[in-house]
Amino acid sequence: MDLEFIELELDWPSEIGLFELKNYILSKLIDYGEPLRWAITSLNTHSEKKVQIITIEAVLIINQAKGKDINPDLN
Questions:
Q1: pTM, 2 dp
Q2: Does the N-terminal or the C-terminal CB of the chain have fewer CB atoms within 10 Å?
Q3: Looking at the 3D structure of the chain, how many domains does it have?
Q4: Of 31, 29, 35, 34, which Cα lies nearest the Cα of 55?
């Protein structure tokens, strides 16, 4: 098991409301690993595209191989 820091930019679709944003972000982060901590660090609006871009910084738990213990001597 390892920890990994990532920075991710996501489009914030207009059909996703503020109260649904947390679940939207978590659903995107789970593609990379299990979120331990995360934060929205910036929000940019592109008026010509009518879209908002959010930047997320996250620390993720990355499992090396399922079914293996943390201590390799135990396997």
A1: 0.77
A2: C
A3: 1
A4: 29
